[in-house]
């Protein structure tokens, strides 16, 4: 037995190899096979793995010359040469205990196989099909609709702070709400829609077949005026309000259509519902939180119900109807072909408390050449 020991082992393998004196650091790819001699009283079983419980694949006899490829740890065996947990690999799938082997040279350690990831079975919770949203509104309950449009049928309402299960996002009507102004509508788990303008939620995927919703939409002054002209002129033909007046009032009172009331409900003049009645040109009522002021100048927060419309044109026509049927504004209709005198009479009749209202309206009419849309000219 050789007594030359290479101290290159660590941990349990080092302890197991004490007394063997024949193992060096692994480098099976470059190390040459080592000739050895079996020393056993009879025959020694070869196994399919370095274990006494492994399948027997053959045998070697006493004093038989063998070629050892490398050595690795396995079952501990008390042999005729030594007691050890090392096994000699003779060829692929053939192993004998190193306790029965003598060799004149050190044997390289077999390379350790790369550790394989073992799947760990864990209890997982299926991912939710929905994204949870929270309604944020300072305008009263938010309508949930059958489609992504302010003209779609109302399928229910949600109060501030309500939770709602959302599926995906679609593009629909522009709404300016408490949270944001956007064309995005969120599809709920019940296949209804709520404007994203009133919802706090993580990002939603786009519903199949829909385009990516724009975060906000704003018309340029020229675009707004072009969109306003048809309804304003129809309002003059039906009720006698000069188109230049209607357009200028819409610009001032809706902020070029960017107000919440205009973008959400197509109400460009702040016309209210009265005891739930909204007339023939509006299509419903929407309760908003608003500020009111007394003649003494004291202002306070309150709620008010405003008319909603399916189109800008219907809002403009209803503006004409509103002025026509209110007796306080009757003097103005003596000037249906004189825009400045018409708006002066409306203002003096108490339409607005702003002392500069007349000046603001006529300034807008002049700055944007709105008189050209007065059709009697």
Task: Give an overview in words.
Helix 6 packs antiparallel against helix 7 (357-367). By secondary structure, this protein is α+β, with helices and mostly antiparallel strands. It folds into three domains: 11-108, SH3 type barrels; 131-200, SH3 type barrels, CATH 2.30.30.40; 221-373, Orthogonal Bundle (Lysozyme). A hairpin with a 2-residue loop joins strand 7 and strand 8. The N and C termini lie far apart (124 Å). Mean pLDDT is 82; it is low at 1-30. The longest helix has 19 residues, at 221-239. The relative contact order is 0.09. The chain has helices spanning 11-17, 221-239, 243-254, 260-265, 312-325, 339-348, 357-367; strands at 23-24, 34-38, 43-47, 56-61, 65-68, 70-78, 83-91, 94-97, 101-103, 107-108, 131-135, 142-145, 154-158, 163-176, 181-188, 193-195, 199-200, 284-293, 299-308. The protein is rod-shaped. The strands form seven sheets. Strands 16-15-14-11-17 form a five-stranded antiparallel sheet. A three-stranded antiparallel sheet has the order 5-2-9, with no helix packed on it. Strands 6-7-8 form a three-stranded antiparallel sheet.
